Structure to design on (748 residues):
């Protein structure tokens, strides 16, 4: 292997002190040598509109699509809104799936994490993400997803993930993600 | 009954010539005497951000929330993106679900329609909408949803719904929606 | 009101010491005066087969269909298998949805509960149940579903629900279910 | 490559003249040289019961688990019942996922097909299958699933798939499945 796999990290919340952004930041900082995670901010990505698309992809969209295209995998950390995918994240995924048949995301390995203040830790949205990522043609890792409940105590005031069980789950998941990417790339 | 039920119509696409906007427009024009449908445009509703929310709801959001609150029911016509809810629509639903415990959408009757160029006619997104609308506490009509396939031929060049089978399905669905609202309001 | 609403309770597991059967039993024993819950055992309901159906509904199926038809509502307590509905329960729902257009379950109020040893407490299956119950034309209660995590400590050795938070959630949910049935019956 | 990949085919319906069994049979007969499909009948697989499991897997279950273990991939053809997975199929999947952590299905490549008399062709159940197969740890193919609408005309009276578009979709899907298995096996 010539170096670590390059991973684009995407947080499904725009809030500055978002727990999911903090979870992604923890993943970035604690990543194993096999992964180099770079967080891509969704701020500036406009609402999807085919009339806009017809005139050319807005800068923030083109950058997102290019970042995914240059990466070996995509790591998503997302909250759960109304048992589903936040509109902010789904909107980014809608742009990422374009243009049809020629998107940079099709075939790309992807893993999902999430955290929420409640007991479920985003279990529901992780169910809902499955057919969407499949619809985009992405190659989903299974068996090592991370759902961190009780976010208000799992992170400290500075946004560090301090819950040991959650830290272990993230570590295990990142190793599994590197293995998944390796498995798909070995052809 | 003192008059027709007031319905807020929401299209899940921002495109000017959106088939789903045309479907909603057909519903508006062809509505039975029991329903008065007014279409609420999502243009201007920003991406959800709790930091923004903390400073007060943006105008377009406050108007959407108020329109839902003043209505007897919500009618959604939505395309299907990547087997799921368009980010544009989910983003509007996320705002509509706020603030937690005091939203104007909780308990409100809701019906879903959709059309797509393909054979499914948005069947998949209608499955995905169920838990989201339930998570918002909305009272979903069942048994008379509308999924119009082959949108490019179901509508004429001016955006009129010309497919007879689809027109009949919309008519039946609107009658069922009026009955559903009546059933829930009769207490 | 002439008496309590009659509720058919269905557990999604055949295991004798099933936590979900225990949860349903707790609901039965602790039901408010507005509800009379009778548990209907799924043992004996065969696997769905249209060739069998063509010869007439097996006894256990006919009894299930009749019990639902005679009830004012259906209360389901279900575990979560592989993020989805247990085959045992889905099989019973498949029979309950028959014959098409003339089932006893269409239009019937329904509420869902669940418990699991893990942290999610069946949150995922409750998401997955939404479109299925909608597909059956059932009138789902929203906003007061019950998901009890950590089943091994929430129940004592005799199968009594001892977790106070869970007991309160069940009590609130049963009251909400009586109100939901009343709302739909008031026409 | 030492020979064709061995595929276990599973039909989600017990009906003798099931369209999905016919679809699977068409896949078997028309399989490319890279795939050898053997159909495994679900008849005899009992309803899942942990009390039964505790005494040992029933013969039909042990055979199903062994067949999956010996195969290079699993091909499922399923109808859609109430927008969801048939109980018969979900019940088989529940057994296939056992015992926890040591199932023969975890990690196994899987592809899904389906046909229905209606216009959707099982699009909805294919959405619902995603999180279930992921929950089982199976490696789902994406991008080449098959949904055949209008089953009553897509097949002739002898159960042969005669719709050309559907035949082409099956052929493309089987090639993609062989490629997917090869990609995962190449490590």
């Amino acid at each position: 292997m010539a170096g670590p796999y390059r991973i684009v990290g995407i947080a499904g919340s725009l809030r500055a002190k978002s727990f999911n952004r903090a979870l992604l930041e923890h993943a970035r900082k604690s990543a194993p040598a096999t992964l180099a995670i770079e967080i891509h901010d969704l701020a500036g990505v406009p609402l999807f509109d085919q009339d806009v698309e017809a005139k050319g992809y807005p800068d923030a969209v083109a950058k997102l699509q290019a970042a995914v295209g240059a990466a070996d995998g995509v790591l998503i950390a997302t909250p759960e809104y109304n048992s589903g995918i936040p509109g902010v994240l789904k909107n980014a995924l809608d742009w990422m799936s374009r243009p049809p048949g020629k998107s940079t995301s099709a075939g790309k390995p992807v893993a999902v994490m999430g955290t929420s203040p409640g007991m479920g830790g985003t279990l529901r949205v992780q169910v809902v993400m499955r057919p969407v990522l499949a619809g985009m043609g992405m190659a989903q890792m299974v068996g090592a997803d991370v759902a961190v409940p009780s976010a208000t105590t799992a992170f400290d005031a500075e946004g560090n993930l301090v819950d040991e069980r959650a830290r272990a789950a993230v570590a295990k998941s990142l190793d599994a993600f590197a293995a998944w990417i390796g498995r798909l790339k070995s052809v």
In short: The domain at 5-185 of chain A is CATH 3.40.50.360 (Rossmann fold). Helices of chain A lie at 19-30, 50-54, 59-70, 87-96, 123-135, 151-154, 164-185. Chain A has one domain: 5-185.
